[in-house]
Protein 1
Amino acid sequence: MKKSEFLHRIKLQTQTAHQHIEQNYLTASLVAERLKRTEYILLLEKFLSFYLPCEQELLYQEFWQKEAFDIEKRLKTPLIIKDLNFLGLSESKIKQLEKPGELPELRQNAQIMGYLYVVEGSTLGGQILGRHLQNLFGFTDKHGAAFFYSYGKENLGIMWRSFQNLLENFINQFPEEENLVIDSANQTFHLLDRHLCS
């Protein structure tokens, strides 16, 4: 498969699920002027309770060592916890957050690739959302919007291209796993959307 051909395919075949989650009440509120501070906190709580068990699962995979890929610097939960602490949530309150009814399956490397496609792809719009949050509430990459600023403007492109290379190399090695990667990405979008609606 030609370089970037799979990236085009997965973007097309996850487009419906991607658009659906953007129409979710909480995520739609995020880009609107009507966003309330309580809604923003709820959104972060939902993201944290979804990402935390997934990231704990990712850390135990041997895949990263074989690929020389630093998964720890891509963890989103420390940034979300930092934002929630700034917004007044205690550690005990954070530990009591409602768990998702169902999480993406991350037992196979192809499933991990699909999950990460969703999570890493979401950072691309983070800079825009971060600026929106700064305009609404005065939040910054250090205080209140660390999750959305994620890697920072300087590193965002580098981090995304690094993941793209990982994904393309994986597909080149295991072309038979294409559909499983795409199915996993769609499952991640679907389950996260369901959790945000719960």
Note: The chain has a mean pLDDT of 93.
Protein 2
Amino acid sequence: MTTLFSIHRALTAVSAALLVCSAALAAPKVYVGNFKDDTVSVVDTAGNAVMAVIPVAKGPHGMAMSGDGRTLYVSGDGSSKVSVIDTSNDRVVRSIEVGKTPHGLALSADGRRLLVGLYGEDRVAVIDTSSGTEEASITVAKPHTIAWLPGTQRIYVASQAPGHFAVVVIDLATASVVRELPLDKPPRDLEFAFDGRALYYTVAGENAVHVLDPHSDQVVADIPTGVSPHIASLFRGVGVGTVVVQGPGELTLFDPATNTVLRSLPVGRQPHWAAASTDGKTVFVTDEGSNELSIVDLASSRTRNVAVGNAPRKVAVQPTDVPAPSAVSVGGARVSIANFAFAPAELVIEPGETVTWTNDDGAPHGLTHRDGAPGAELPLPGASVSRRYDAPGRYDYVCSVHPYMSATVTVRALRLQAVPPPPRNVGGREE
């Protein structure tokens, strides 16, 4: 009986974990900033519906998703704040004061530094994401959007200073401007290809995407488009480049090897931004003029639309190549404390298992158990503490340093499973 129960328990845990991971990986959550509503809509792409609406800083403008998909940063154009969303519960867990009129955001690959273009202060702020403090400030006139050259410390900023339009190049290692690439008209957006092969940027009043070689900082090609192209990208795994073209309401696809247009797909009215799924099969386009999110299947060229909030602009996709922390982790025994949150926020274990918490943040944290068990302080990054749970039940805890950080451990009730009787032979067959 004991052996059968152990096997059953192991299989149950594995099956549950696989189901959770499958659900998490099946379809991404998409986050849409509704500029006029001061909210972010969370879209369940499996069900084609808004599953949550999150109030954020006024005028959501820039968006940056962490590589692990656990944290989303949203700048408020009408405020001085960046809202930090925990994607496990789709709530704002803190607000970072950054300065006047924050526009574009860019996040380092390790998630430790956030770049914020402060349009109202003519500078780019470098924020430590763990502490929320400013590490450095680089003077850039009217910084709009920001692009980080992959694998380097080079940053490109769209500067919209009247009479002095430019793409500004920053060396983040020295926190200084190294050169400016002057423009005749205001730059709109600039994005690096996922592999850094090219910088794609658009300019107000020009119906083309400019392709810049980051090795020479020279424009090597122009991709003609319809009226008013906004953002051009080459996403990992997609295979073709994409351009959001506002005038005709299209998503234009181009060949990144030849910089030639392949075809255009209709989306909603006045499209604004685009993001892609991790598998590269789907592109998500915000339609500011029709208050929708267009979900474009690249293989079939079919588009379906989901109604979101008022004036949707930016969009970010939660990666699906890592298990989403919003799912309950079954049978796990480790909790990471990072970005001022516990991950996973809900942990389900069996009686007798031990849970280990590790401070993966840059700030001190601690544990206060609601059931009265001894707590612990984790003053240094990398420090760990463990607790064994024997009795079934729900165990809530919070951070002793930051009480707004909360999470739960649930210990299953121990249930023995009866061994099924052998099959009966009825009329020469088993049933």
Note: The first strand starts at residue 29 and ends at 34.
